[in-house]
Amino acid sequence: MSLWGGRFLDESNKLFKKFNTSLSFDYILAQEDIFSSIAWSKTLVETGVLNEKEQKTIEYALISLKQEIDINPKQILTSDCEDIHSWIEMNLIEKIGELGKKLHTGRSRNDQITTDLKLWCKNKIQILLENTLNLQKSFIFIAERNHDVIMPGYTHLQRAQPITFSYWCLAYVEMFKRDFARLKDTLKRLDVSPLGSGALSGTAWDIDREKLALCMGFNSSTNNALDSVSDRDYVIELLASASISMMHLSRFSEDLIFFNSSESNFIELSDSITSGSSLMPQKKNPDALELIRGKCSRVYGSLFSTLVLLKALPLSYNKDMQEDKESLFDAIQTWNDSLLISSLVLNNIKLNKISCYKAAEKGYSNATEVADYLVKKGITFREAHHISGKIVLYAIHNNKALKDLDLSKFQEYSHLIENDIYKHITLEACIEKRVSKGGVSLKQVKKAIKKEKIRLNII
Ligand code: ARG
Known about the structure:
- One of its GO terms (cellular component) is cytosol.
- By secondary structure, the chain is mostly helical.
- 62% of the residues lie in helices and 5% in strands.
- A two-stranded antiparallel sheet has the order 1-2. The protein has a two-stranded parallel ribbon with strand order 3-4.
- Helix 8 (209-215) links the parallel strand 3 (192-193) and strand 4.
């Protein structure tokens, strides 16, 4: 039986019924619907709709229903109910008879669905926050183990200046710190209960909505019922947070795919997260990372589809809004899985120190140092840059590293260059010079790692 049968004379068309139902995906909100229904039943006692005994009967029946769902959540899917709200109500009525029909007094599925969805988001956000922190910990552990591994840093995918692997790790820690803060911020705005908004203009029963909100663990209750049932900002914000974090994960994946390529050979990925080729026995493909890079697109898709879904949608609730869920559920699952897989990849990575060092040596990544050296000898940076460029050009043509050029060759380009040039252009010297805040020097990196370990409580 549908929840709204009274006004209708004819049965629903079968095709429409199938088209209209959301049970196949909103069944995962069963626990949240029971939770908010129990809170609502308590509120109904205050209005006199239920007496204490009736409320307890409803609460116990809902708890026993919850236990049944815990054992087999998919049993819900065998029903032809329209959505999870009608399924819970129908089952409650089956358990306790007529009394169950009182529960929906004063509420609407419009405030019910957004309450359930917010509760679901709150639970997921806690898990995502924890996994974002865990990923940061993985970065710090591997950074500490490899704090002195020198590798090339890139711009335009060209070797630019030497960095260390730990410094690269710390760059990602910064990104995931911002993701963490964004998620916390999303949670702060989301943590407002819409329950008691009714269909769109508030409930006709004199209830204490603030008390109801606190009883469900929300921070407060919403101010305007019309807005409350129309609002899906929190879905968009959560998807935006997911999209930004997935973007970070995709850049991380791409960096590692490149580091793992035969051309770079900076790292080796563990067998446990790579796959082989069915044809070419030598292959070890970075599938986990390629999938994260690829899955980023479906999370962006969810964000875009929800933005479009809500664009110009008139107030207040419209059935269009039922379409917010599948993509949200999928995006959150994808994001969480990607965070977990990224930690797994990092924890099992092996660095090839020698290849990293050799690559950093090869790319003339110390050319800036020659220019800085000349500046210290009193010429302008522009002029020094030009001289250094000429020296690099000579070295490229003669297939030599800068450190392998004779002093006399350097002096052909500038008489200011002396024998001390060699100690200024070692990779170690390039790194050690960058001691100011945010720089790559080992001292700064060690300091940063220590600070992060305190923050992450892993001392
Ligand atoms: N399944 C609906 C949704 O997900 C629940 C709200 C239904 N409200 C309504 N007035 N039909 O949005």
